[in-house]
Amino acid sequence: MTGAAWSLLDVLPQKPPMVLLDSIVDHGEKHTTCAVRIGPGAPFAGSDGSIQAHVALEYMAQCAAAHSGIKERDRGNPIRLGFLLGSRKATFHVSAFAPGQELLVSAKVAWDDGELASFECRVQDRASGLLLAECELSAYSPHDLKDLLERQKA
User: Is 144 a member of any domain?
Assistant: First the structure.
């Protein structure tokens, strides 16, 4: 496991309270797994403390971003801003996550050309291993954001 020295705040561009994951639990060359505990005060929690399953898309996107951020930090580079382009094959096997439930969120690189990437993502119940949500995410992380923004103005 590499990247063990990094926290989510080190590898994600988001800042609290929009860092929805709790910790990085595993990282390898082609994958990262993070954990999140569903708590009553969490962003997007309903009055009963549950969180609707579609929020898993953001959990998965943040896990993929953490993977990319760890790789950049391990190379001695700053993290790059990434853009979620879309999701494919999104399947939610539950309608909501229960208060107190602990989740494992994983992102596995399907392909990556250095700027465009695709991740196979899953959300599982930590205790039972039951698959709760899954999808394929596509993201874009330009090497030179300033140049991209200048080209957008032209």
Answer: yes
